[in-house]
Amino acid sequence: MSEPLLIIGSYLSPCVRKALVLLEIKGVEYRIDSIVPFFGNVEFERLSPLRQVPVLVDGELVLNDSSVICQYLEERYPQPALYPADIADRARARWIEEFADGRMGQVVIWQLFDQLVIGRGVWGREPDAAVLEKTYQQDLPSIFDYLEAQLPESGWLFGELSIADISVACFMRNAQFARYTLDAGRWPKLAAMLERTFALPAFQKLHRFELAIARTPIVQQRQALIAAGAPVSATSLMREQPVRGPMSRS
What are phi and psi of 63, to 5 degrees? Predict the structure, then answer.
């Protein structure tokens, strides 16, 4: 019998979350080494030369980048399909995924979550008030205006649940952890889509593990996940002290 897939990366990472949601919805067995990339050891850096997560290990195959990983999972485990069947919709869904990874990653992660959570928790740095002001007043509203315009009057972005809805919701979960609340009066279609997505069993299951480590010191998170019943890997690539990666913006 083949070994379960291994995902390396923290439950609190939106890109890790995206891969985990696909695995959960598709019913694929996996294990997770839930480490913050700053705390990855030398072996982690060998598997992830940019010191980024997620990393997927499937036997001899090692994949980096959440979009690459999700496309692989879709092709290897095609049911239920999470990419639209129509070629034009599939391309548009991939664009929304890229918009989430790129623009939402820049704003939600590096200008919000990094300022309020990572900076304090990992580097002991207080947030930059000017960065947060621009994030709240300009950058987040522009993102939400765009997404609101892409959504139909009700339901998912492309009729059925797809990688597009999942990708957007994964980043908005981090906004929630940074105590941001979306204005449902201003962006009602987006708020309704997110509510529906967060209600999915896959998101609810993962959220239990996210909450188990959200306020837990990094060095204690592995034990907290084991206690919570997460499918934790037998060994870990974690080191005790953080190190910045070549792509780090912190």
Answer: -125, 140
- Domain tally for the chain? 2
**SS3 at position 1:** coil
Whole-angstrom distance, CA of residue 142 vs CA of residue 169: 17
Q: Return the ∠ at Cα 72 (arms to 173 and 172), rounded to 5°.
A: 10
Question: What does the pLDDT look like over 68-124, one tens digit per residue?
Answer: 999 999 999 999 999 999 999 999 999 999 999 999 999 999 999 989 887 666 666
Type of residue at 31: R
Length of the chain: 250
Give the range of the structural domain holding residue 184, as residue numbers without chain letter.
Answer: 87-198
Q: In Å, how far are 50, 67, 237 from 42, measured between CA atoms?
A: 12, 24, 8
- Residues 155 and 179 both lie in one domain: yes
* CATH label of the domain that carries residue 151: 1.20.1050.10
